Prior knowledge:
This protein is globular. It has eleven helices and 20 strands. It has helices at residues 3-12, 14-26, 35-47, 108-128, 148-154, 207-221, 260-281, 300-310, 320-331, 335-350, 398-403; strands at residues 51-54, 63-69, 73-79, 133-140, 163-167, 173-176, 182-191, 195-196, 230-237, 244-245, 248-257, 284-293, 297-298, 358-362, 389-390, 392-394, 413-415, 420-422, 428-429, 434-435. Strands 1-2-4-3-5-16-6-14 form an eight-stranded mixed sheet, with helices on both faces.
Amino acid sequence: MTKQQLIEMMEANELQFEEIAKNIWEHPQLGYNETYASTLQQDTLKEAGFRIEANVGNVETAFIAEVGEGHPIVGILGEFDALPGLSQHVQPTKSPIVDNGPGHGCGHNLLGTAGVEAAIHLKTYMEEHQIKGTLRYYGCSAEELLSGKTFMARAGVFDDLDVVYTWHPGSVAMTTNLSMQALSGVEFHFFGRTAHAAAAPHLGRSALDAVELTNVGANYLREHVPDGSRIHYQITNGGQAPNVVPDKASVFYFLRGKNRAEVDDLLRRMKLVAEGAAMMTETRVEVVITAGCYDTLPNMTLNESMYENAQLLKPITYTAEEQAFAKTLQQNIEPSVVNGSKNATSATRYSTRWRFNFRILSYSANVPHDDAGFFGYWRRIVDYTDGTSNDRLRARFCAATHMASNCFIRFFYWDEGHAQCRSNYGTFCFRCFYNASNY
Length: 439
C-alpha cells in the first residue's frame, strides 16, 4: 500500500467518520462528562481490533486504544469535550437546541473523530507492511478545562511514548511552527460574615466586596504585565440575594503568558491582589489551582516533513450547498467582527516576526479568499509539554499520511510542585537519523 492508496482508503471510508463526528456534535457534553463520545470512540476502535484501556488516570471518560507491540510507540491525541452555552442546531443562524446548553464551538467533535480515523487506517497500513511497533489512540477528556491530560500524565501513560501527534480544526490547512502560551487556572474563594444588608450592614463582612476588589486590582495590574499576557475572570459565586451580605463568594481566573515563568509570576501577583482584597474587607481567601499547562516548543523538522507529505492531498472543494451555508453564516456575523478578524489576520501574516511560522498546505479550489485564516491567538496543545519539541497540524487528513513515515522521541516527567507534567526535550528522527533536539 502506497501513501496515495492510504489516502484513497480513508476517502472511501469517509462517510463512517463523518457520521461519528455528527453524532458527537448532536450529543455535546462538558469536560469529564463526555460519556457519549468516549463510548462511541471506544466501541469503534474495539471493533477495528484495538485493545481498550478505560478509566485512565481515574477519569471515567479517558481511555487508551492500542494495537501492536514494542517500539517505536506512536500516539495520537484525541479530544471530544464541548463548551458551555454553545448549543446549536446544524444551521448558519443562531438556533440553540437547549438554551444555555453545551455545544461544539471548538470543533472537538471533529478533533477526536479524525484521530480515530487516522489510527484505524494506520493500523491497516502497519499490518500490510508488517511494520513493528505500537500504535495508540489517547481519548483525552476535558481539554477545555486544561486538566484532563494532566491526570493521564500523572498515571504515567505517556512515559514510554516515542512520538505523539495532535491537530486542531481550523479555517486553513497548515502546519503551525510557533509556541503556544503557558496558562494557569486559579479560583479565589472568599469567606466573610453574613448580615442583613439594610438592618445591620455594619455587622457584615462581604465576600463579594473582596471578589470585586480583586477584579479591580487585576484590571489595574494589566498595565504592568509583559506584552502578550492575558487575564480573564468569571465570578462563579456572587451571593444569594441583594439584601443579604454574602459570606461566601468566588472568582475564577485564567492567566496566560509566553512561558511558564511569566505565568508563575503573574499568579504570584494575583495572589497578592486577592490577599490585599481580603485584608481590605476583613475576609479570608483560599486559593485553589484548578489547572496549568506549559508553553510549547515547535519542531520545524517534523512540521516540514508533515508539510511535504501533505502535498499528496487534493485541494479541499465545497459543494454549492456548503458555499451557500457559509455565505449565510458570514452574513449573520457582525461586520465589525469580520473586518477586525481580517485586519488581525493580515497583520499576523505580514509581520516579520510571524512570516515563517505557518506553512499553508492549500487553499480551497473553489472558494475565493483575501488572505490566509491564520490561527490568530495563542493556544496550548496539551498540558504535558514543556521543553520538548512539539508538532501541531491544523488539517484533518494529513495525520495518517505523515505518521506512516516518521518517528520522534519525547521524554516526560511528572512535576508534583506544579501539579502538572513536564518534559525534557531530546528529539530524534528514526527515519533519517537526524538529531532534531535543537530543531
